[in-house]
Specification:
The complex is a heterodimer of chains A (340) and B (789).
Chain A (H helix, E strand, L loop, with lengths): L2 H21 L3 H12 L5 H11 L5 H33 L21 H15 L3 E3 L4 E3 H4 L18 E2 L12 E3 L4 H10 L4 E10 L11 E11 L4 H16 L4 E9 L2 E11 L2 E11 L1 H6 L8 E8 H9 L6 H4 L2 H4 L3
Parallel strand pairs in A: 1-5
Antiparallel strand pairs in A: 2-4, 3-4, 5-6, 6-10, 7-8, 8-9, 9-10
Chain B lengths: L1 E3 H5 L8 H10 L3 E8 L2 E7 L10 H12 L4 E3 L5 E5 L5 E4 L5 E10 L8 H9 L7 H13 L3 E5 L7 E5 L6 E3 L5 E3 L6 E3 L4 E4 L3 E2 L11 E9 L1 H11 L4 H8 L6 H16 L2 E4 L2 E4 L8 E4 H8 L5 H10 L3 E3 L3 H4 L3 E2 L14 H5 L37 H5 L17 E3 L4 H13 L8 E2 L2 E5 L10 H12 L19 H15 L3 E2 L5 E2 L1 H4 L23 E2 L4 H13 L7 E11 L2 E13 L3 H14 L6 E4 L6 E11 L2 E9 L1 H6 L7 E6 H7 L15 E10 L4 H12 L3 E10 L2 H4 L3 E10 L8 H19 L2 E2 L3
Parallel strand pairs in B: 5-16, 6-9, 24-27
Antiparallel strand pairs in B: 1-3, 2-3, 4-21, 7-15, 7-16, 7-17, 8-15, 9-12, 10-11, 12-13, 13-14, 18-23, 19-23, 20-22, 25-26, 27-28, 28-32, 29-30, 30-31, 31-32, 33-35, 33-36, 34-35
Helix pairs in contact in B: 4-5, 5-8, 6-7, 9-15, 10-15, 16-19, 16-21, 22-24
Classes of the chains: A alpha+beta (340), B alpha+beta (789).
């Protein structure tokens, strides 16, 4: 093909395409014309492009420039036809009105369990206070759940009816029974057994106690426990850490009140109250680590002292979100879970 | 423990509002559960922690009030008038099980008249929630509530052989208790028997046959000390919990047994008449000797973080009934010089009666008490009469007994002496001694003090116990809440960080987090058990009804939660849980594997895609391999087991029709369960940067026809191998089957390949060439044919 012929073809193509696009009466006709003239595989423009490639090299720049102009014109014509048809279509359907309030297509969102959210919040606060997370098993031996925590064999807390002992068919090599841990304090022992002071940890997890389920009791619930052991750790440190925890958790000024209490693994032992919005809120138990506990893990109570505290996660979470039945947490109705 | 306000008033001056008293008691460790008005009296409900059985009584609470307010406590003398006949002639007592019964004190009163109790006594019992029965039974209940020592009264005429034997049951022995139930007795229970038969379950409940009736004339009064563990087990085993067992379980005052017996007899004589036989049959061991405790003053600051003035420390501990002992030589070595002298004791009163009560006769002070004047220099007895109620002035009140010997008609006994506790005797003695001219020790004060705890405080054994007492009474509010706590960095474990990402991905995928119980019903454990065939661990008592098996997979629990949701018509049920399962190991604690499990309404491949997305989020480069699940609970054509880094990672698939039926689910669903630990190991939480090329990629769709057994993963591996460094991605599109067009046993795999060169734009011919290489390799290795169009 000569340059002349190429130009001719080009003009023919331009005129035909423009005419056909302008004449198209509906989108189907326009689409057919588009494929014929502009189709990516075998449209006429594509063929012209091939022809352009076969022209003598000297002619190519001139031919290319023209080719480009024509292509732009044709594409313009196509867009114009498209816009025209679109408008026609809209006009013909004038009874239909655009409704801007139709909702968007929402991706489904998942939800973290409220207990997880409370745990994450507390972990994050305690992390800022220098407490790292520690972990221990949920099935325990009597040493970690009782003995090392200053709960001797005849102690009422070890009564089989107050604990979930495992069936006697399964026993430890030493002959001791196993049980589901009744408190996260077991983790204190496991950490101190393998780590020298200073210790600053929290332990979070499931604990198990035989309580008949009712709105405030569940045989399984979650605890968070803090432990700090070092030289010169005092009850004033305990009170201060708890106040800081409270202020971070409640986002405001908090005071701490201790009421004497009794736990085998702490001495002195106290109940923690936090003042919040003019009321005292019961938060959990705390105390100074009992010297017997320190001795049990090989620490010297004359050298180091420490505090420990434990909070019930469910109770905090219930108060935070106004949940009035602890059993909701474990029923896992999605209508409940999706509220948080 | 319910405390009657009017009753408590009998022992200690109560001139404060009841709310204030309850607040102070709460701040001293006795939670106030509520106050109700009962017939003109106030019933104050206090929670008593298990370490303080001494406070399961009005006298115990009175002692606390005395210590908190610095007031004397008036303790009845308990000096019943005795007749002439020695009790030994009337009754014999033998303890055959000294391990279960430590001590048994018996007294006998003959000639009582059974009748209703006087109004004041009945009122008090009603206030504390006890129904009055008759004068003798009511007195034993009254003394129990007064001092915390349980007592039992027998109709002595029905005690055969005039003998009490404390022993274990004979095989098959039973007893009818006063509640008219018959109980079969276990081998390690403690029984009170006469010569023939059991007459009471020791410390738990009396027998019906020997109970006090209207015709009773002679009464045997039992005051004993039983092994707390045995009582607890017996009460539990028989389901018989009484005021008695509650106190014996926690331990009674070993030196208070005889006082309670005398007190009971005194009141019976007063209210029912009769004649008390002389003396008591008192068998069993002597109360164990109490050991003094050394308190180093410096330890108070070390533990509490505050200084408590030494005088205050002494004052608090003495007010609680501790007695100061003379310092030992080692105490005096290195002690500092001060103006006070330590209190010196001649001897410690180990006699049970003297520790409880110093009175010799009703209404009169003991002869050893100075009749007037202020005592000498002992710090704790310094106060004068004029500041009687200020802090610590037992001596001054002692010198004026009349001020407190108020015996209104409602008071059961006129015999009162005033004493705050056992230590009083000691101080008095020391005071007497000093006054009579014994030489004071040097003007020095050691850095520690040696203290003997009172007999009723078996919880006080160590220095730390005394520090707690100081803190409790001094007031925890004095401990500051704004000290400087040293800063220290905390570390988030890799596990924590991985779990956080996992949770983000899953909620991002539209899954809600569930938390289910760790224990399931035996039927459910078999529902999904791909991990272990070991016999599951069981709890002795079920967690909730029927659920006593420690789960070995989270899937059954999630399916149960799914059913719960179906039952209330929730249509979109997309749940995941992260928790531990328990795989038994012989002779050791079980393996606790942390699992992620999902149940979903989406098709299998979508759920599998979520697991793959987890790997992507954690930048895990380890290979993921899928094999047939071979798990009967999963539909074989819509499930697989997954291996991560060649370790079994987990399962994903649609549940089988059987499992669906078994779990009672209306709709089919998919489940997945994978091990978190593998994710933690393989996660790359700090991904390293790779430069991105500034050139476009070229894609090619490839449609390969292969035989049915050829797996996608194998083809993909070949593609990668043949694709060279410019192959950027291989995207599976879908599998197409059409026997007519492709042939029997054939399928076509459609994929999109993307090529990119890091330093220039690839040309179409280059991309075509690469594609052809790939197709050729697939042809060679898998017999694949390129399918046109």
């Amino acid at each position: 093909m000569s340059l002349q012929e190429f130009f001719q073809e080009l003009e023919l193509f331009g005129a035909a395409a423009t005419q056909r696009f302008a004449a198209a009466e509906d989108t189907a006709a326009l689409e057919a014309a588009r494929i014929e003239f502009l189709g990516a595989r075998s449209g006429r423009l594509k063929q012209l492009q091939k022809a352009l490639g076969q022209l003598p090299a000297a002619d190519r720049p001139q031919a290319g420039q023209r080719f480009h102009q024509v292509r732009q014109q044709v594409e313009q014509a196509f867009k114009a036809a498209q816009a025209r048809l679109c408008q026609q279509q809209r006009a013909s359907r004038s009874a239909e009105l655009f409704d801007p309030t139709v909702p968007g297509l929402r991706p489904p969102l998942g939800h973290l369990h409220p207990i997880t959210q409370t745990i994450e919040q507390l972990k994050e606060i305690m992390g800022r206070l220098g407490f790292s997370l520690a972990d221990g098993p949920e099935v325990e031996d009597e040493w970690h759940n009782f003995e090392a925590l200053n709960i001797p064999p005849e102690h009422p807390a070890r009564d089989p009816l107050d604990n979930f002992y495992l069936a006697t068919a399964s026993q430890l090599a030493g002959g001791g029974p196993m049980l589901l841990r009744s408190q996260t304090s077991t983790v204190q022992i496991r950490v101190m057994e393998r780590q020298k002071p200073p210790v600053r940890i929290i332990a979070v997890g499931r604990v198990y106690r035989p309580d008949t389920p009712d709105p405030t009791h569940s045989p399984m619930f979650h605890q968070i426990e803090g432990l700090m052991v070092d030289r010169h750790v005092t009850m004033a440190d305990l009170k201060t850490v708890l106040r800081m925890l409270g202020e971070s958790y409640f986002h405001g000024e908090v005071h701490i009140r201790f009421r004497p209490s009794f736990f085998p693994f702490t001495e002195p032992s106290v109940e923690i109250d936090m003042s919040w919005q003019g009321r005292w809120i019961e938060m959990g138990g705390a105390g100074m680590v009992d010297p017997n506990v320190l001795r049990a893990v090989g620490y010297d109570p004359e050298q180091v002292s420490g505090f420990a505290f434990g909070l019930g996660i469910e109770r905090l979470c219930m108060r935070q979100h106004g949940v009035d039945d602890i059993r909701e947490f474990f029923r896992n109705d999605v209508r409940f879970l999706q509220q948080f | 423990m319910i405390i009657s306000w009017n009753w408590l008033k009998q022992y200690v001056l109560l001139d404060m509002p009841v709310e204030e008293l309850c607040y102070r008691l709460m701040m001293a460790g006795f939670n106030h559960e509520g106050t109700t008005e009962v017939g003109g009296d106030l019933a104050i409900d206090l929670e008593i922690t298990s370490n303080r059985p001494d406070c399961l009584s009005h006298l115990g609470i009175a002692r606390e009030v005395g210590a908190l307010y610095g007031r004397p406590v008036r303790i009845p003398a308990a000096q019943p008038t005795e007749g002439n006949i020695p009790v030994e002639r009337l009754v014999q007592v033998r303890i055959e099980c000294p391990d279960l019964c430590f001590r048994y004190v018996a007294r006998v009163i003959r000639g009582v008249r059974i009748g209703p109790s006087p109004a004041w006594l009945a009122r008090r019992l009603r206030t504390v929630g006890i129904t009055p029965i008759n004068n003798v039974v009511d007195v034993s209940n009254y003394v129990l509530m007064e001092c915390g020592q349980p007592l039992h009264t027998f109709d002595f005429a029905k005690i055969q052989g005039r003998t009490i034997v404390v022993r274990r049951p004979k095989p098959g022995e039973t007893i009818e208790a006063i509640n008219h139930q018959r109980y079969w007795l276990g081998p390690d229970m403690c029984l009170i028997c006469d010569a023939q038969r059991p007459v009471a379950i020791a410390g738990v409940m009396g027998g019906a046959e020997t109970e006090i009736s209207d015709s009773t004339t002679d009464v045997l009064v039992e005051a004993a000390e039983f092994d707390p563990v045995s009582i607890r087990r017996t009460a539990r085993a028989l389901g018989l919990h009484s005021e008695s067992s509650f106190r014996f379980e926690r331990g009674v005052d070993p030196e208070g047994v005889d006082w309670a017996s005398r007190r009971c007899c005194e009141l019976i004589l007063q209210l029912a008449g009769g004649e008390l036989a002389a003396g008591a049959v008192d068998v069993g061991r002597k109360p164990p000797q109490r050991q003094p405790i050394a308190l180093r003053f410096a330890q108070i600051r070390r533990i509490l973080g505050i200084d408590v003035p030494r005088e205050k420390v002494r004052e608090i501990l003495l007010a609680l009934g501790l007695q100061e002992c003379p310092p030992t030589d080692s105490d005096l070595a290195g002690c500092s010089s001060v103006s006070q002298q330590p209190i010196k004791l001649n001897s410690l009163p180990m006699d049970p009666s003297s520790a409880i009560c110093t009175s010799t006769s009703a209404g009169e002070p003991p002869s050893s008490i100075p009749s007037s004047g202020s005592p000498p220099s002992s710090a704790s007895v310094r106060s004068s009469i004029t500041d009687q109620l200020s802090t610590f002035d037992h001596l001054s009140t002692y010198t004026q007994p009349s001020a407190f010997t108020q015996s209104p008609s409602s008071t059961p006994s006129s015999a009162f002496v005033h004493q705050i506790s056992g230590q009083f005797t000691a101080q008095t003695r020391s005071a007497t001694e000093n006054a009579s001219g014994s030489s004071p020790t040097a003007q020095i004060q050691p850095d520690r003090v040696l203290l003997l705890p009172p007999s009723w405080r078996s919880d006080l054994q160590r220095e730390i116990d005394l520090i707690e007492e100081v803190a409790r009474i001094y007031g925890y509010e004095k401990i500051p809440e704004d000290v400087r706590v040293p800063m220290t960095p905390s570390v988030r474990t890799k596990q924590e960080r991985v779990l956080e990402k996992v949770r983000h991905v899953l909620t991002g995928c539209g899954l809600d987090e569930a938390i289910t119980f760790s224990v399931v019903e035996p039927g459910w454990i078999r529902a999904f058990l791909p991990w272990t065939s070991a016999e599951p661990l069981r709890t002795q008592t079920p967690l909730v009804r029927g659920a006593n098996v420690l789960r070995q997979s989270l899937v059954p629990s999630l399916l149960a939660a799914r059913r719960t949701n179906e039952s209330v018509g929730n249509s979109r049920i997309e749940l995941f849980e992260i928790a531990r399962v328990f795989w038994p190991q012989p002779g050791a604690l079980p393996i606790e594997e942390q699992m992620l499990a999902i149940t979903s309404g989406r098709p299998y491949l979508e759920l599998k895609g979520i697991l793959e997305a987890l790997l992507e989020a954690l930048k895990i480069s380890e290979p993921l391999r899928a094999e047939p699940a071979q798990c009967p609970q999963l539909a074989p054509d819509n499930s697989c087991r997954l291996y991560l880094a060649n370790e079994l990672w987990g399962f994903v698939g649609q549940i089988s029709a059987e499992l669906q039926a078994q779990t009672d689910l209306r709709h089919p669903c998919t489940v997945a369960e994978v091990r978190i630990a593998l994710l933690v190991t393989a996660a790359e939480l700090v991904p390293q940067y790779r430069p991105v090329a500034p050139y476009p990629a070229i894609t090619r769709d490839v449609n390969l026809v292969v035989d049915e057994p050829v797996r996608w993963a194998d083809v993909a591996a070949t593609v990668w191998q043949a694709g060279g460094p410019w192959l950027e991605s291989v995207q599976y599109r879908h599998t197409y089957r059409d026997p007519q067009r492709l042939g029997e046993g054939k399928k076509s795999l459609l994929m999109t390949l993307a090529f990119r060169c890091p330093d220039r734009t690839l040309t179409n011919p280059e991309a075509d060439q690469l594609r052809d290489l790939i197709v050729a390799a697939c042809q060679k290795h898998h017999g694949a044919q390129l399918r046109a169009g």
